Structure formats: structure tokens, C-alpha cells
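Archive entry: two folds, one per protein. Generate the first.
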Amino acid sequence: MPFKMILKELMDTVPGATGAILADWEGEAVEQCCCYDVYELKVIGAHKGILLNMMKEMHQKLAVGDIRHTVISTAAQHFLVGPIGPDYLLVMTLARGAVVGLAVRRFESALERMYKEIY
């Protein structure tokens, strides 16, 4: 499965991208690509997986439809988080100055490609 290739392409096509990780529903890393400490990215992936699961539960209770992706912005960086079916998630980290709109577009494409590979 070309997960590493998809993650690397995502990073290469989004200026300001600093990391991308595919994790399972428990937050365990399946594959990752980053320009900083891999352990830090794995912790970020697990944490954002917890947040995504909480958001999915809220959306089910509110009957507002499934989450496609979410953007979390902090003072230091942006995070894109999205589910890949019921069992996996993709997390991407971006420098604060990155163009989030472009990142979202490429992120959604990566989500679709990974979904096809997994399911």
C-alpha cells in the first residue's frame, strides 16, 4: 500500500506542511512523514484522534452529518484532521503561515486516495 507515497506527496504539494500521519482508530501510527521528531508527530496523531472521535460522537447526537475534516488553528500552527472510514484518520501539521485553503484541498484528495487503498 502506498501510504508513505501519499503522505510524502501531500507534504510536497502543500507549502508550509510540516508533517502528516495515518493512524488507526486507537491512535496508533500506521505510516508517517515529517520534518521534525517522529515521536512528536505520533503523539499529535493520537491526540487529534481522540478529538476527532469526540467530535464524531457529538455530530451523531446532533444528527448533522458525518465529519469530512476539521481544521484546528493554534498560535503556533494549524492541524488538519479527517477520518478515513470508521477505522483510520489522517492528521496533517502546518506552519502558522501556510495557506490553509490549499492544504484542505490537497488533504481531502489524500483522504480519498487512502480510503480507496484501505477499503
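Generate the second and append.
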Amino acid sequence: MSSHCYKLIELVGSSTDSTDDAIKNAIDKAALTIKHMDWFEVIETRGHIADGKVSHFQVTIKVGFRLEA
């Protein structure tokens, strides 16, 4: 098994639909410029409440990606 070196970045994704969509939005956007993403970890979840209902989700994640040799 070869060894890998990873870089960690922190991203914040948002969505009006769900926390899952907020995570997917952050990863989809990052994938446009970052290669070799392998995993993510949810750090924080927060949201906005309007008129007594959740109106917006925001999720902070750490993403690990492999550095090229």
C-alpha cells in the first residue's frame, strides 16, 4: 500500500433545502478546481429561521484531498 499526503481545507456550503444539499453544494463547487478529494467531515451546522421556520441551511466541512507527488 502506498502512503499518501493530504491537505485539509474548510468549506461552507449553503442550501434552502437541506443540510445534505449544503454539503453537496460545497463539494460540487470545490470539485471545479480541486482534484483528488477523498473525504469530508462535518464541523458545524447552522441555519436561518424566518417566520418560525427553517429557511436556510449552512454547513461547515473539512475536506481532505491527496497532494500529487
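Annotation attached to the second fold: Residues 14 and 29 are 11 Å apart (CA to CA). The beta strands are 6-15, 37-50, 53-66.
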